[in-house]
Structure formats: C-alpha cells, structure tokens
User: Fold these one by one.
Assistant:
Number 1:
Amino acid sequence: MDKKFDYFLEGKTGKWEVVIGLEVHAQITSNAKLFSSSSTKFGSNPNSQVSFVDAAMPGMLPVINKYCVEQAVKTGLGLKATINNFSKFDRKNYFYADLPQGYQISQFKFPIVGEGQIILDMPYGTKIAGIERLHLEQDAGKSLHDQDPSNSFVDLNRSGIALMEIVGKPDLRSPDEVAQYVKKLRSIMRYLNTCDGNMDEGSLRADVNVSVRKVGSSDLGTRCEIKNVNSIKFMQQAIEYEAKRQIEIIEEGGTIDQQTRLFDTKKIETRSMRSKEDAHDYRYFPDPDLLPLVLEQSFVDKIKNSLPEMPDEKKIRLMNDFDLSSYDASIVVSDRDISEYYEEVAKDSDYKLAANWMIVELFGVLNKEGKEIKDSPVSAKNLSKLINLIKNNTISGKIAKIVFEEMVKNNEDPEKIVNEKGMKQQSDPEELKKIIDTILKNNEDKVEQYKAGKDKLFGFFVGEVMKNTQGKGNPKLINDILKQQLK
Amino acid sequence: MTINKEAVKKISKLSRIASNDEFETSMIKDLNTILKFVDQLNEVDTKDIEPLSSVVEQKLFQREDVVKKMNEKEEILKNSPNKNENYFVVPKVIE
C-alpha cells in the first residue's frame, strides 16, 4: 500500500488518536410497524398512521411483525454475524412526549443478532470493523417545537416503526473510516432491501461515541456520545470538533465527563444535552407482554440461502472474472443501484470498458448535474451499445466521447447518432495509406527531421491525419501505417 | 433492599409524578411493605437454575406484514386533552 493511516491530532503534549464507535439506527423496510398493523409510509399526513397500539391506549397488546424479524436476521447474515435463535424484548423506560408508552420496546440482554463485521476499503488497505450486536426496537414519534411559542406538537406516525440498532465496536479511528463504515453498512442493507438508507428522511441515523488517547496507548478514554446525527458530513464534523474539545480539556489538566451531547449543525460544535443529576436511568426489565422470540434454525437457513450476492463477494468476482482493478470494482459495487446499472451495461458489452465508462464519463456527468444513477440521462442499454461500437471498431474512443455528449442530451441511441452524423471510424487501410502518403509528401522537411532523430514529430503526423479524417481515422491503424511509411 | 426518601424522589422524577413530603412518607411505607413481601422469594434457593422467561408453554405469535387501517386520525386525537387539527399538543418540551 502506498498510503499509511495518518489521522492523528496534534496537541500541545503530543499526538492523539481518536477512538470512535457508532450506534446506527436503521429503519426496517416493511409495510407495517413492528408491533402494529399501521402503515410505515413516509411523508403522510400527521397522525394518519396511528393505531391504538401506537398511541399506547390502555389494554393494547403488541403482536410482532414476522417480516421485521426476517429483515433483522437478513441484515445480521449480511454482516456475517451470529444469529441468536433465542432473543427477548425488554422495556426501556423514559418519559418524553413523543413516546406514548412511557417506554420503548427494545432488546437489552438478549439481542436477535450478535457479533459481526464490516469490511472497509481504505486507501491504506482493508480494515475490518467489528459489530457488537444488532437488536430490534420501536421508533418514537416526532415532536415539532417550532410551530407554536408555548407548545410542542406531536406526530405519532413514526411511533412503533421497526428499527434495527446496530452497535459497532470502538474500532474506527478517523472521520474517513466513519464515512466508509456508514456507507458500507448502508450499501449492505440496500443490497438486502432491509433499510432504504435514506438519511434525509431519517431512515438511517447514528449516535457517535468519541474518545481520545495518546498515540501508542491501548487504554480507552472516557467517551462522549453525540446523539442522533443524520448525515455523514455532520458525523465527520462532530467527531473533529469533539476530539479537539476533549484533547484541550485533558491537556489543560481536566478530565472528560461521560455525557450525552448534541451536534449543532449551524455552529458546527457539540454541546452537552443533559446535566449529570438528570442522567437517564432506563430501568430496563423484560416486557411481560411479549414471549421470547425463538427462531427455528430452518427459518434462519432459508433466509441464508436466499441472500443476494453481497458487495464484497461481487467485488471479488468482478476482479477475478473480468480483471477489474480493486478500485474500479469497489466503485461499481458500492451501491445497489450502481451495481444493477453496471451489470446491465456490462452483460452485453464488456465488463472492463463498462466500468471505465461509468466511472469516468457517466459519473462525471452525474456529479456535474447532481443526479443519482437511477436518474441517469443515459440508459444502461444505450451505454452498452456505445461500448459495443467502440469494441467492434465502428468508432474510436475519442469519437465515442462526442457521441456520449450527444447521448447525455436526450438519451439517444448511439448507433443512430453515429449513422446520422457520419461518425463511423475510417478503418480502411488503403484509404488511410493514401491520406498518409499525401501528408508525408506535403511535409517533406518534417519527414527529414523525423528521420534525423526528431521522434517528437510523430505526433505531428498523427495529428495531421486526424485533421484530414475529421478525427474519424482509426488511431491504431494510423499508427501502424505511419510507422511503416516513415521507416 | 429498602426504599428511602431519595429513592422515592428519584422514581417520582423519572415518572414525572409530582411529589411532596406527605406523599413521599406514605410511599416509603407502601413500597417497603411490597418489597418485604416479595423478598420472601429470596428464601428459595435458585442456584444453578436458569431464569424463567415465561410460565406459558407457548410460542410468540407473529403477524404477517400487512397494513390494516384501523383508526382514523380523529379517533386517535379524540383522546388527547389538548390537540389541534392534526397534532397532539403538549407543553413545550425541548431538551
């Protein structure tokens, strides 16, 4: 590896290392909520998807959604984690207006999924980040604080939606590793269709645990937890700020209080949320309304056998079978939509060229226009056709770029563009030889110089031929013929 | 385990139940009576016995992932002491 890990913070007393662990809350993709039959649809009218169970009316009982259990197991398997065939639900008690039960049903002592891992591709090599556990729990409702000067408004549509809390080990050491971790986790869940990973809609959010220690030390420092951060950029900013804050305190001779902090996205700083005497005491205890969740091994095996090809495996296949570079392969597998588009382009054309064209040309356009792959102005089918035109020498790579620009405008069929604009490559050796001979004749002085050792002039001749053929001459043929004629 | 005034105060606060001296004194008495009663269970030797998760020989019933619209917004909001057209309205809570 040419690069080395280098995220250390310089303090007055030396170099510091940052230790980070994430607790990611991922909303499960399902039709109905975890313990009720209300819809989970995002963006509906307030309080329109609330049953008496979600509003915690007296006497209501939770009944678990089988599909949500399946989704959690699937995610666990995608994280190469242990599936616990016996798990239990506990009540996590706290008082808040958008939690009508007064407790959240969660899994404390016996989570459904145990230890697993996520593989991160960093510029300095592969890193394995550990997963501590994954458990099922209910989401809370939403409070709006800015609608009225003296009141808060509560919408319970989100109340009771199934969440997976994915607790990572404190294995991350830099904001970049955190970004990779979240992206990879999101990608895994999107491959599995267990969470849409939409951070704007709050389907994926994280509590970030940060502590610092002197480089070389193996003890963990006291950590602070930054609650509910909902974008990768904010996570990175929060970590940088928080790490520096902690280093300053320790270097001034102080100690870090273990506390919960919030990230102010406008001021780019973290602030303490709760004073010590208010520290939460969740008083966990087994939920008497729910029996233990026992999974038959056959149920787990059935899910295991139905898993799609995951990004890590797909990457290895593309590298081994189609000779893609590790970098190209990791980009085309990085997201489910991207990989589906890629497979569609590549299956009828060429895996290597397809990767090149997507990463360089298509992503260039998408970045410029701020679009996602699913809104790509060029369809996979047309890109595939374009690559075939290059492959069978109908057009040169250079002309292909011009065709591509046309395609971006209105997703036109590249074959049609090439025919209509007469862009076919000139690949007739006899024709090319004629043109070349004329050019050499008209530039006898340069031919002399070239033969006398001025090799650089070769480019000049190529340029002249290209000019003469309006850029349509087959570059390889031109090279070959020129070399021969200049001997 | 015994309940003292501090414990009652803490529980009241966590449950958002208003308390005063008189309430606390009576709670200390009540809760300690209950605890003492339950403490009798400690007389049983439970060494090497796995905790029992349920007394019923039954599996957790699981429901299919099907949406059923059971309650209308009006029915849900009807139970709130304070509401507007769309929302439950509560005293301003900001952490």
Number 2:
Amino acid sequence: MRIRAERDDLADVLARAGRAVGTRSPLPILQGVLCEVEGSRLRVTGTDTDITIRTTLEVEALEDGRTVIPAKLAAEAVRKLPAGAVSMTAADGEVEITGNGPRFRLRELNVDDFPKLPEGSEGVSLSVDGASFTSALSQVGVAASGDEARPTLTGVLFEGEGDTMRLVATDSYRLAVRDMPDIAGTEPTLVPFRALRELGRALGEGAMDVVLGDRDANFATDRGSLSVRIIEANFPNYRQLLPESYPNRLVVSKTSLLDAVGRASLVAEDHIPVRLNLHDGGIELSVTRQEVGEETEHIEAEYQGEELTIAFNTRYLTDGVSAVASDEIVLETSDPLKPGLISGVNDEAFRYLLMPVRL
Amino acid sequence: MRIVVADCTVDYEGRLTAHLPLATRLVMVKADGCVAVHADGGAYKPLNWMNAPNHLLEEDGRWVVVNPKGERLTITFTEVHFETAIEMGDDPGLQKDGVEAELQRLLAERVEYLGEGLTLVRREYPTPIGPVDLLCRDAEGQTVAVEIKRRGEIDGVEQLTRYLEFLNRDDRLAPVSGLFVAQQIKPQARTLADDRGIACVEVDYDELRGIDSPALKLF
C-alpha cells in the first residue's frame, strides 16, 4: 500500500476513524485503524467492535493494499508533520509516514487480526439534516446515563410518532424528549448515546442517511459512516410520566436562570439542591450548605399558579435549561415532590422532565 | 490439616525456578494434599504452593513435594517452632452474604417486582447441583428460574445456566426460562445472559426495603 495525500486531509480521516478506537481495549489489534487503498480511494476503519467509524479520502494511490496502523500514534504523527504532501507506505511489517523531511517508521499490526465488520445494515432508512439531527441528539443526550451497568439508560430511544421522529433519553432522574417533525417514523430502537455523541465530529453536519436495523444503527454522510450495535432492551414506559397539563407555569429568561443557578452552584456543588420559591413576580432562589454558607437571589419572572417551593439538583437543572433552544424558559410544576417540566416558550419540540429533590 | 511454623527455605522447580530465602514461615498441608507456604502477612495468596494431586516425601529436615507434571517444591527446615495436625471435616461452603439473602427474601415477597404476572412457586427450589433462589411461574404459566446476586457477573449467569439445564430435564417444569437478578449487572454478564436467552433485571435494594432517598426518581 502506498499513497500520497495532503497532511491535513490524511490527519483528518485518521483522527475521525480513530474516535471509535477504545483506549482500554484488551485486544491489541483494536488499538489500530485499518487503512485500505483501492483505486484512488483510501478507506480508514476504526472500531471497538460496538462502534465502527469509517472515513474515506480521495488520494494519489501509488499502490493498492491494506494495513493496520496504531490509531492514535499514526494520526498524531501525520498531524505533526510539516504542512503539505504526506506519503504513507506499508511494506515488510512497517508503515513509513513521511512529509517534507521527517520520517516515521511505525510497526504494522497484523491486518488478518482486524475484525471482519458488517458493511452497513438493513432496516428503516431515513434522511436527515446532519446539523439539526446532531443538535437534537445533544439536547436529549444530557439526560442519558453514563452508567454502563444499566445499558438501557445509556441509550437514546428513536421512535416514530406519526410523521415525527421522537428522540428520548433518561437516567431515571430526568427525561428529555425531542420531536423532529417531518421525519418518517420507525420502530422503537435504542442507540447508545456514546456513539451518537461522536456523529458530529466523525461525520460532519451535512445530509445524513440513517438506517435503523435489528442489530445495528448506521449513520452516513459524504465524509464517512458510523455504525453501532443497538441496545436490545425495553426502554422504560416514559409516556406515563408526561402529564397532559400542569397547574403552575413560570416563564423566565434562560440567561437569568442559568446565571443564577451558576452562582448558586458555587455554594451548592453537586449534591446540594437549589431551592426555588415560585410566586407572583418571580423566583426566590436559595441554596444553603451548612459548612460553607448560602446564596440567595431574586429572579424576575412571570408566574401563574399557587406559591410553591421546589428543589432541584443544580447540575440537572442547568443541563435541562441549557438544552432549551429558546431565550425564554417555561417551568411547569404541580407539586414539590413531582417532576417539573422544562421547555422553551412557543417550542414544544423539546421537553425536559426533571425530578425534584426532597427538602 | 497439618500446620507447621518453621524457619525454612523453599525452592520451586518446574515452569520456572523460584527460591524463597531463609525466614520463618507457615507451612500448611491440607487434607486433600495441597501444600501452601505462607508469610506473616497478606490474606490472599501463599508465597508458594503445590496443588493436589502430588506426592509429599518427608526426609530429615526436608520435604519434597512432586506433582505428576514433574514440578517440585522443596522445603528445607532449619528449625521447627510449632507443629500440629487437626481434623477439620467437610466445609459447609460459603454462606450467602446478608444483602443477597435479604434480596432473595424481599423479592420472594413481591416477585411481581421482577415482572408482571410472575408468581412464586417456592424459594430455594432444589436441583441436583444446589437450590435455585426462586422458582416462579409467569403470566402464561411457564416456569421461570430466578437467580439473585448482589453483583451480576458472569459466574452468576453460568450458575443459572447449570440450574436451567437440570430443571429443563424435569417434564413437570420444562420449558424453564431463566431470570438473572442483581443490583447491578455487568455488561459482560448481560451479554452472556442475552446469548443464552436469559432475561436480566436490575433491582434497587433500597427501594425494595422502602428506604427513602432525597434524590427522587422518575421510575
């Protein structure tokens, strides 16, 4: 295998495919990326066997072939070469990477050890705008759990709801729902958020084809593809958690609320809740930490309903408010011990249900 | 069990060679023939050992333990401080820890927590290789064997698989499906369970005990 390419382009395809490479894989071969040259196309594949990222680049191909090179080292080596043309040659168990003087000779990994990976998947096929899709995923992703011991909660549910695609995530303390209108529905499919989080950086934000299969989900743009094993488990029945209506409704500036919660967080840290007294004219926000002190402030807001004091985990509250796209936030409540619903004014596409903390 | 406390050196020859210089050590010869040499520290591993089957040859001031693979452990005694032998009898095995036993009790009282329509047949249902924690029937009347662990690891799935193999030989019960229950189930254990058609359920011990946490949950 022998190619020549622009440094920045080659570094980019290696780094993006390398995002699927785990740092703690027990199999040495999975520390590498597979580079395949055929015709004038270089295809780079990185995988941890659950997530696979493939990237492609038009190159000056001097000799077809295949090799597996250490993912992180090769990407960094190319990136640190002087700008301009870079050549990569695999022969006799080594890969030589050179460009304008410096020369790396890296040990190849055994190409025959690289796992045989399925090419794409069959299933429901959707076309989405990459930018709005990744933005929607990041809105719901804040509510996905990072606890691998409960895999069901580490995923984002893709679900058809009439002419709308619905994305849902929950870690059992909060639940985020994002509707994407005018995208055909699909059978409920649970896709790991740790893969979805990579979509923007790995594939860019152009037009994206999404295929949701029985075992895998596949996402592809003109910059490459990402496939991931779906989570085969039943997502919690979240619909019953979303009430039709709430008796109390607060409308407040997103910036004012975020700034205030940010100040309260200085005192609260993660485990102390912020207390919101909701009443006509606004919010009395307060936080008290016995060994440190307290912070209190008033936030102007419109409020309709009975006076109510409710407390939330500061990080979860910040996550939800930050995820709303509008400048004004709606916080709907019914009871200090029942979940509050955060959304944007005139924006029903995104809802964030947040469980309060008992005072 | 034979117990010797002595100043000794120990030499191992086999896959490699290893030498323990002169020091005071505890040497144990267990009823099954296993020989272990311990230092006065650490609760887990002997400094050197020879599993059964082996042959222990006692010479003057020296024991030579040889196994069928030709590996050799030589213990050379310079001074014996203490020696005794005691008949210990059969070991009853490891008792379930408190949390696991309590989980079993709590879940037996409300098996519906594990799945809608599930009813209890009996706790500790006997099989030829030991009792399965709970034997239940699902809403369709099918038998479900439930294994409960504090931490859901691969060993637990293997254990349930063995129970299922025996239970499914009983025409009165078959087909018997498996349900693996733990506070937390490791991804590898879940993968193995999925592969074997065993369902997994994670349970919240505090919730089962009715202990309130200030952090409320949606479900």
Number 3:
Amino acid sequence: MRPNLHQLAIYFHWPFCLSKCPYCDFNAHAFDSVDHERYQKAYQKALAFYAEKLGDREITSVFFGGGTPSLMKPEMVAVLLSDIKKHWKIADDLEVTLEANPTSVEIEKFKAFREAGVNRISLGIQSFIDKDLKFLGRQHDVAQAKRAIEIADQCFDRYSFDLIYGRPDQTIKAWERELKEALPFAKGHMSLYQLTIERSTPFYMRYNRGEFNVPDDIDGAEFYHVTQGIMEDAGLPAYEVSNHAALGQESRHNLVYWRYQDYIGIGAGAHGRFCMNGQKLSSRDHSAPEVWMERAESQGHGSHEWEEIAPEDKFVESLMMGLRLSKGISISALEENSECEFKDQIKTEHLKTAIKEGWVNFDERQISLTREGLLRLNQIIPYLLR
Amino acid sequence: MGMSQNSKTKPINEIRNFAIIAHIDHGKSTLADRLIQQCGGLEEREMQEQVLDNTDIERERGITIKAQTVRLEHTAKDGITYQLNLMDTPGHVDFSYEVSRSLASCEGSILVVDASQGVEAQTLANVYQALDNDHEIIPVINKIDLPAADPEKVRTEIEDVIGLDASDAILASAKTGAGINDLLEAICTRLPPPHEGEADKTTKALLVDSWYDIYLGVVVLVRVIDGYLRKGQKIKFMSNGATREIDRVGMFTPKKVELDILGPGEMGFITASIKDISETNVGDTITDEKKPCETALPGFKPSIPMVFCSFYPADAGEFEKLRESLGKIRLNDASLHYEPESSQALGLGFRCGFLGLLHMEIIQERLEREFDLDLIPTAPSVVYKINMTNNTQVELYNPVDMPDVVKIKSIEEPWIKATILVPDEYLGGLLQLCQDRRGVQVDLTYAGGRAMLIYRLPLNEVVFDFYDRLKSISKGYASFDYELDGYGENDLVKLEIRVNEEPVDALAMIVHRASAEKRGRQMCERLKDLIPRQMFKIAIQAAIGGKIIARENVSALRKDVTAKCYGGDITRKKKLLEKQKKGKAKMRQYGNVEIPQSAFIAALKMGDE
C-alpha cells in the first residue's frame, strides 16, 4: 500500500469571471449575476456525496480555482471549509489556496477570505506593464497589482502570483527587466507561463489572422533559459515546468496532480482522479454550469459517469505529470501508481537516445528531464512510450 | 428480358451498320437519343438523356466507355424498311483499340461536328480510324440552332482540316429534331450494306465488346460476318480456344430483346454462361466449334496497359475492400490490370495498369465513388524497356524496381504522336509546353484561325499533368489527342527521394537527366513544408544513383511543452497523446524520426507546379 493513499486533495471550480481573457481556454463563463446560494448548496451536496464514498481520507489541501474564485462570497468559502472539516479528518498543515484577480473589489475581500480559512492566495498579476495588461484583456493595472500583493502579504502567510511572458513584441531584454522588477514582490512562490495560443480562444483567431506574433520555438527556448537563470539566482528555482518556489514553499495542492495522487474535483468542468475499492477512477464534472448544478442537485454530484483508468493509461498519466517536476518521478512511484512495469511501457532504445541527447536523467530509481528535456516534454513523452 | 421474337434474319441489302463519331460535347449522345426516338425504339416517357451511356461517369463526363448497339427500323422513301444498327463507340484515345474494333463492325460513320465549335483533335483521330476501316462518312453539322452556329465555316473546316467532301453535309439539331429525317434517309441511301456476308459459310463473328451482367454473366456484343449465331450453338473463341454453348441470342432496341438467331451483317448480343470477362477479348473472332472457320478476322490485339500507377487505401484497414472493388471492376473491364504491392511509405496497395490516362482516372473515380474508398494514387508512370549489359531486355513497370545502374546499357521509353488543335493566340504557349516536355515538332499547319500541331512526345512527359497544362495555357480551347508511336532510347535516370538517408519508395520516379535536378529540388522543398518538425533534424535528399542532387533540412524543434498542466488538464493531455499514438499507426520510420504518411500523400497530391 502506498503511504499516502489515505490522503486526499479537494478542488473547487468556480466557473465565472467578470470578463473572459482572450488567451484563456479554461472553463470560464462571463456572468454578472450568479445565484450564489444555489451554488453553495450544490457544492455542499457534492461534498457530502464524496464524503460518503471517501470519508476515511485525510484532507491535505483545498484549492479554489476558476474562473475567478475571488468572486465567490467569503461566507460560502467558510461554509464549504467547515463542511469539509465536518466530513473528514484534516491534516495539521492543511493548505487552502484561492485564486484571485488583483482588482480593487476583490482585494477588499482578502481579509474575509483569510477569516474563512484561506491561508494561501494565488494572484493573476500576469504583467508589470500596463500596456501589456491591456493587451491580455486584464481588468487591473500595475498599481492595483502592486496593491493586491501588498494586501495579500498582510492577510496571508503564503501567496504566489502568475506572470505571462513571451508576449507579442516582447524582447528577452525587456522580459528580464520586468521579471527582475517583479522579484522583490515575490514571497516564496511564482508561476511563470509562456503565452500559449490555444485553440478556441479569441487570440487564436487574431494570431491566425496575423495580427500579432509570438516567439517561435527557438526564441521561446531562449526566453525559458533566461527565465530559469534569473529565478535560480533569486532562490526561486523551478520545481515544475512553469512553477518556481523557495524550498518548502511549493504548492502542495498542485504537487498532488503532478505526483498523480488522489484528488476530487467539484464544480462545472472540474476533474478528479482518486482510488476507490482498489480502482483508480476519473471523474469529469459537466462543463456547463447550469447542467452541472442540476445534476449536483438531483444526483449529489455533477460528474459524468466515473471511469476506471486502465493500467497503461495510469502509467502514461503518471509519467506525463511526473516528468513536469524538476525532480521527475521515481520508478517505484510510477510502477505503484500504474501497476505496470517501467520496462514494459518504455522503449529502451529511445530512452537511451534521450539520455544520450542530454534530455533525460535516469538512474534506475528515478527518471527526470533536464532543462533541454523539459523544453521538449510534449515530444519526449510519446517518444519514450511503447 | 423482352419476349422472344421469332425473327427471320434480314437480307444483307436491307441492313446498314453505322457508328457515330464526335468530339466530347458535340452532341453524339443526344443525336443517338433522337434517332432512337424517331425510329420508335423508345416511347417518349422512356427516354432519359443519353440513353446509351450506362454508367454515371459516362453520363457525367459525356464520354462512352463501353460500346453499345441499338437496332432501329426505318422505312425509307424507296419503301424498304431497313434494319439500322447504330454502334455507339467509345470516343477516347485510351480506348482506341476498342474504337477500332467497333468501327470494324460497321460500314459507315456519321461524323458529328458542332456548328459553333468546329473540328477538334479527337474528331480527327476517330475520322482517320473510320477511313482506315473503309467507312463511308456522312458529315453532320449539329447544333445549328445555337446562336453562335456557323455551319458554312464548319463545312469549310471539315473540307480543309479533314479533307472530306462536306457539300452534302446534313445540317441538324439533335435538340430541335431538325435534319433527323434527312439523316435517316442518308443512312439508308448513302451508306453501303455490309460488305461480306455469306449465309452458307460457317459462322464467323466479330467480338465487338463485352460486359458483365450479374444475372446473365458476360454479355458479348457481336457483329456477324458469315453464317449464323443460334441459341444452343457451340461456339469457339479463336484467340484463346475457349468453347461455350450459346444460351441467349438477342438485340437491343435499346431494350434487350431475345431472338433465335443472328444472321450475316447483323449486330446483337449473345450470352454463354461466361463468368470471367477476360475470356472475351475485344476484336476476337467467334466461330462454330465443330466447323471452325480457317482464318480469324484481322486486327485482333490483346489489350496492353500503357500507364501504371499504384493505389493505396488511405485507411490501411481498407486494403481488402480495395482488392474486392478492383475485382468487381475487373469483372467488366478486362483491360484493367492489378497486382498487390507493398510500400514502406504507404503500406499495402495495388500496382495497376491502364490503357491510358482517362482509363486511370475513370477507375480511380469508380473506386472512390461506387466503392466509397479513399485512395492515395502514386504518380503515374509508363513502361520502360531496359537494355541490360548482358544483352537482355527488361520491362520496367515501377520505378522502384529499376535495376542497378551499372548493369544498364540503355533505357527506352514509349513515345506518342500528339495532335493538338489550338486557336492561334495560344500557339506560342503550347509550343513552349511541348518543347519543355522534350517534344519534337512533326508538323504545324493552319486552318480557319486555328493551328494544327503534330508533335512527338515521350509518354512519361504527358502522363504527369500535360493535359491540365495544355488546358490552362489555352484557357480550355486546345484539344488534344494522341496515338502511341514506338519506343525510343533516352538519357533517363531514376530519381530517388530520401528521408534521413532512407529512400521513400512511393516517391521514386524516372525522369530525363536534364529535368532531374529541378524535379528533385521541387520534391525536397515540398516535403520540407509537409513534414512536421520534430525533436531531431530531418534530412531530405534527392539522389540519382549515389549522387545527391538536391537537399533540404527540417530543423529540429527546440521547444514543445505545455505551459499549464494541472488536475483538470490530464484527460485532455492524454487524449492528445492518444491521438498522437493513433497517428503513429500511420507513421513511417525513417532513421530516428517518424514521418506521417499524410506528408507523402500530400507530396503526391500536389502534382507538378
């Protein structure tokens, strides 16, 4: 038995935003009137449902993501957290994260969120340049961003913020300057994402019309290397492809995903992966908020039918997530997570080539990617798999 | 099957067998329809346009692939009721042998020329064939109802270009019916009755065409020369010695009508429980088994494929379906040749031989349309004759099978003689095209604002996209026809395309040394754009023998990583991986990279630009 099988993480998805950002392909809906009370009841019902199935677990982290969960009422967050405490045993160092946008309305609520039980906040700062914030379709400016960080620092023990780089017309020099300017605001954790043009986003259309350009793979690699250097010097090395933290400041909740540990997902479009009766199941909540709520009200949860994940699929998922981490994943964890043998799933010849090319570190007990390997992650996974 | 009709055979003097010759779109089928209607072969309500063109493709493209006969009756002004056998012949050069056999079964032809378009290259080729068969020809200037009709100009053109006396050409409109009676009268009076035909001689009949019918087996279209064909008679096919017993004798009106007997000079069909169409060769002589005639009819040739290409199913799972479908088409088309072939780049498929380009297109279209197959055709190729240093000669059907160059003394390729009719203003462009394709000018004459070009061209320069280029240069006004014109030695080389040092079999081609570099460079550049970048650099090369003549690189991908991947993204990411994995089934390994089959398919589909 794996040592932490009895642990469980809970993810809440709040699928609403004031407006949708043009680069975002997450399940988010721009709504200004939401029936908070009805949602709260649906979330509560789903919690009770999962508690009945997985009540013997210990909760290690809770994450409110979205969408824009800082638009939730703090009272609702308080009720949900108190329900969790009623249903489950809680780890001493429970991590409760909430994603927030740095607009003034949301900043005002930080204190109330803390009182509700949130102890970590993740801010969508995205840039320290006003013009670029506008391009990214954000509702805040740099002054508000700085103010939000200041308040977050006052309210929470831990906070993180996101930046997006590799923006149109951004030079590497300009990004270096901006990142160095941002570093004094950091406290132990930052997420740095390269702008990706996702299908089914307004940016995709505009990009394909040739309205703007983003760095190609060669410049993108250069951006990445420069970023890593700066962050290491600042004592915030990457612990995952896009996530940086001082030792011990990693997002424990997100580590659950990358380590392929158990979590449940509640809310429109939320996914879960958890073991039950000796099977690893995947849940997938209906992505339309209205439908989700009706389902949750009638059947206790808003998920499509749970599916058992086949051993080979568990291997693929575990490898795919594990290799995102700087430390990689141990062979024993991969094998335990999947019930598959490493050597049966991996092409030995390709593994050797990948090692020789300097993309993979492998020592029989642990497999991880070098920085050059991380840059090619999407190619390496299928290359290694049988 | 209609009622059996106990008919006596017609005296030879009251029979007229004729073919209709026309360029595509000049109204052959409509004219035939009109003749059938006029003679009462079909009621008005039974008429559908182009009664004789049976397949969808025939109807849509306005071409005839299989020969058809219709027996009509017309009472002429002399009071005699003549039996008119209308022979609808294939009109395209690919079927020129079939055309020649159809024409051989007739004594006269109706030459249909569009009153607004004038004489076209294809018309010429067919007229010459009719003249070769000693046909009496009645020129018909059709579509005189069109506003752009200029019958006098066309009359002059027929005289100048073809050299036929057109003073008594019949002016007609198949659409309005004008001139149809005159034409019927002319058929009875101006065309001769069947030349030969002795009733008391032993059976001798020409096999004009044949097709497979699921109820009757192979239906054989015949023209009786001497003697009779009767139900129950034992017959022999002289080309292969096969013997059969006739189980049905009949004619088309165009409805199928059973008879007891076909006599000298008559046309009709027989069935004899034949399952395999390859037994019934066009041009063969049918005789009586017990009392065979001494000599076969002249002109018989077994069908020889001239153009080759391979068909691969886009979905590898459809290989068996492709095999079955080719088999079904072959039931009705003995000139289609095919055999299984395996390609590293494209998987399992069939190497197919065709009579010509149109034949190839038709087969491809039928496979795709009637059998719902998604096909990848390779570049068409011709049959080369390779003279080896040990003084043997090898026929090369597929560039991949080219022997080692050191063992080759010389290579011969098939040539054609092309006839091109083109309005003056496009002549320059066409001369350039023929020149670029290694053509040798034979003749250039003018008639009525148009030039008639005769060129000798290597067939392999024509199979590629010559016809498309010709049409685009002349804005569609040029017409083109060709006949085969022997083999000629030339400086030909096998151009090989390599990916990461490994040859891609499906892209190998035989080209003239002078154009090898250009073609090689084009293919490399094309592949460079089509092959997706990967973790490893990909080298694309074009080579002749061991010598690299062009190269391109697909640079290695430096970065491909999803920036955000959290709990909700696993499913989506895994689906992407599965898709990649599924795509791998269609991947081909070249060195350390896998190339999607789709890249090769696209390279083949792009043609020569």
